[in-house]
Amino acid sequence: MIDLFFQGDLTPQPMDYRLVSLSLLLAFLCGHVVAWLYAWTHNGLSYSRSFVRSIVVLPVIVALVLMVLSNSLVTAFGLMAVLAIVRFRNVLRDTLDTTYLLASIVLGMACGTQRYTTAVIGCALMAAIFVYLRITDFGTRHSYDVVLNVNWTRPTAELVDLSAVLNRHARKVNRASQHASGGGGTDLSYRVLLRDPERLEEMVRELRGLSGAARVFTIAAENESEI
């Protein structure tokens, strides 16, 4: 039985297990590079950790799909039929959920077409990838520590005093919003990456003692991800 595994798939055109392993590992490395670049260069308002993880796994799934199809028109139509049924019966809102579903479908087709070696290697590698993503928390970004909200009652031209306090305590400050308050003044919201998170209360006390700063409060920031 073990010999059959190393001899390849039980199909007219079997693939050597070493070639299968190399192809899937290369697909994983390529997907990992693309996902890392996406996470590094993304500047939009909505960043999804789930989407980044899907980018890592999808090349492996696509490579496995092409191995299973192997120029088989019948298998290709079968894959389309299964995907159509799943899409009709379920609406998946999370990209990682879709990735898990695609992986299950492809592995099932590999077993159904007697590509046992491909199925076992593909399953083992994808399981290792999902565990790796979970352990390393891959795709998570931490860009700031707190969200600072303050009502500025002085003219906006004098915000330099507020900025001076923030720059003294923070490594990075990003003004997220600014709009006129209904009760007077200007409501400001900042994303702040602190130099020393232990000195957060010191910064808040200093801001509350600053002339023109009212209703100063902070909100602990979560990782910049959609889970």
Structure commentary:
This protein is α+β, with helices and mostly antiparallel strands and 227 residues long. It folds into two domains: 2-136, no CATH class; 146-220, ACT domain (Alpha-Beta Plaits, 2-Layer Sandwich). 56% of the residues lie in helices and 15% in strands. It is built from eight helices and four strands. Strands 2-3-1-4 form a four-stranded antiparallel beta sheet. Helix 2 runs parallel beside helix 6 and helix 7 (160-169) runs antiparallel to helix 8. It is elongated and about 80 Å long. The model has no long low-confidence stretch (mean pLDDT 82).
How would you summarize this macromolecular structure in one to three sentences?
By secondary structure, the chain is α+β, with helices and mostly antiparallel strands. The protein contains eight helices and four strands.
Q: What is the gyration radius calculated from CA atoms?
A: 26 Å
Total domain units: 2
Strand share of the residues? 15-25%
Order of helices and strands: HHHHHHEHEEHE
Report the strand count. 4
Q: In DSSP terms, counting alpha (H) and pi (I) runs of 4 or more, how many helices? A: 8
Helices and strands: which structural class? alpha+beta
